[in-house]
């Protein structure tokens, strides 16, 4: 099957067209990503702004032509945090359908995490079983604890990089007080998640999405983004803290053009670095295995599974509820 996935995120839109074999192997045919900042102003106004919506629609029009060119068998499109929160989301979705033909599914944070987990799992090195995954998005951040034979434990928090940049990091560069305020906010959410876990001694910490892959590219001083060098790169907490200090010492304009830093992330990369370092310090994690696979790939695996077994029910991840156990008993799920 040749399938296409469109991920309409708060900061970035992503496209992936790939062939999925009967053995569930993914072969990329075409991929693209655009920083469109759909979530600009949503945290404050709870509305998608006209200019932001138009930027996304322009990208989707282009991707419609790309998908048609490759004669895709099926497509799937999702929207995440910004559209979830927006009071005018129905207007936006109707316009997208009318002007681009995409039927966009607005997914909850926990469903976003489930599909992201499918993507991460598909790219892990052999032998890694227990993982704690972190997906830092523009509007929200998802924590996913996944152990074989256990229902994944998931929490989604509204601490994405666009949201925190607009809400907390108001100066350029951010003041120490603003940085401290973000750290306290992130630490509180990390402790909330940690309260439901016994230990993380046998767990591999892995991170996905633009903040973490960008930090991996910056750590290697890549002149152009190279997925092969970023995927499964071991990013230490020490390097993350060093990058954070460098970013905080510069203005947005001074960060622009730094090796590995994607254009358009000059402001939000600071909030992302603080989220990652604070989560790792709070949970006492020393290294992050970077995944260049995530929601896009998971969307394709999920679509392929539904096409093969359309009547098959999908097991939903558990939203932690204070069990304190390593696994959540599936009998407790609704």
Give a verbal description of the structure.
The longest helix has 20 residues, at 50-69. Strands 10-11-9-6-7-8-12 form a seven-stranded mixed sheet, with helices on both faces. Strand 6 (131-136) and strand 7 (141-146) form a beta hairpin. The protein is of the alpha/beta class and 334 residues long. It starts with a strand and ends in a 15-residue tail after the last strand. Helices cover 42% and strands 20% of the residues.
How would you describe this structure in keywords?
alpha/beta; 13 helices; five-stranded mixed β-sheet; Nucleotidyltransferase, domain 5; 12 strands; 334 residues; 2 domains; seven-stranded mixed β-sheet
Strands of the biggest beta sheet: in what spatial order? Answer: 10-11-9-6-7-8-12
Strand proportion: 15-25%
- Domain count: 2
CATH superfamily of the largest domain: Exopolyphosphatase. Domain 2
Distance between termini? 33 Å
Q: Which series of helices and strands comes N to C?
A: EEEHHEHHEHEEEHHEHHEHHHEHE
Shape by Cα distribution: globular
Largest sheet: 7 strands, mixed
SS-based structural class?
Answer: alpha/beta
Which value, in Å, is the CA radius of gyration?
Answer: 19 Å
Task: Quickly give the CATH architecture of the largest domain.
Answer: 2-Layer Sandwich
What is the CATH level 1 assignment of the largest domain?
Alpha Beta
Number of helical runs?
13
What integer is the average pLDDT? 89
Task: Report helical residue fraction.
Answer: 40-55%
